[in-house]
Amino acid sequence: xxxxxxxxxxxxxxxxxxxxxxxxxxxxxxxxxxxxxxxxxxxxxxxxxxxxxxxxxxxxxxxxxxxxxxxxxxxxxxxxxxxxxxxxxxxxxxxxxxxxxxxxxxxxxxxxxxxxxxxxxxxxxxxxxxxxxxxxxxxxxxxxxxxxxxxxxxxxxxxxxxxxxxxxxxxxxxxxxxxxxxxxxxxxxxxxxxxxxxxxxxxxxxxxxxxxxxxxxxxxxxxxxxxxxxxxxxxxxxxxxxxxxxxxxxxxxxxxxxxxxxxxxxxxxxxxxxxxxxxxxxxxx
Length: 285
Hints:
Elements: E1 6-8, E2 12-13, H1 25-52, H2 54-73, E3 80-84, H3 91-98, H4 111-119, E4 124-132, E5 136-143, E6 146-152, E7 155-160, E8 165-167, E9 179-181, H5 185-196, H6 200-203, E10 206-212, E11 216-221, E12 225-228, H7 234-248, E13 255-259, E14 267-270
Parallel strand pairs: 3-5, 6-9, 9-10, 12-13
Antiparallel strand pairs: 1-2, 4-5, 6-7, 7-8, 10-11, 11-12, 13-14
């Protein structure tokens, strides 16, 4: 669910624009000002007491919490939580991370601790939380955007544009994304996908990409065609292949490998008529 949300079930209410409460603006404004003055004065006193005496510091803390508890009776309590930006994050997980019940004193809410818990959720890239006195908490969530599926040592994970893992389980619905293979593949995946996106028709044929030798990519296209991109100017090589395809339809000629590592030519290896095992020594670079 996206947009603004209002908390229900005694915890959060999901909704659109906040209701305007006619005839209470002056009263709440005065209450807000009064509470600000009281808390400000108490903060200054607490600083002085804390320096002067440990016992006075404890007295300050006790007085502070008495004041916060009393503020709830004056209307400074959580009546609603507005959420902006939630799409993939489950509502129950978000509520558990916020740990805020309806009716709790709004001034007792630890914003920084709640923000850290929310940002620890898999889909959340970053979050901000604000108090909208006297009774509303605003939670703004920026979620991660899926980029590719990362395969490493037989395991699969959904990654974002920064190479961060979003999910390791339940990623079946992202099977149409390109699979990137290799330990360091997530770091370079965004750059690769940007390069491939310059030729969208050709990109639609890419099924997987293998990070080779820590410096370049091999692509697997539909039809089990391997494309070897160069270490430098992969974008130029990819555009060259797109042009070859438009003019000569090279992908329709029973090819097995298209090697673009040399800047001035395309090396084509065709599917052998009779497949026999081939011995190779070392690793491809």
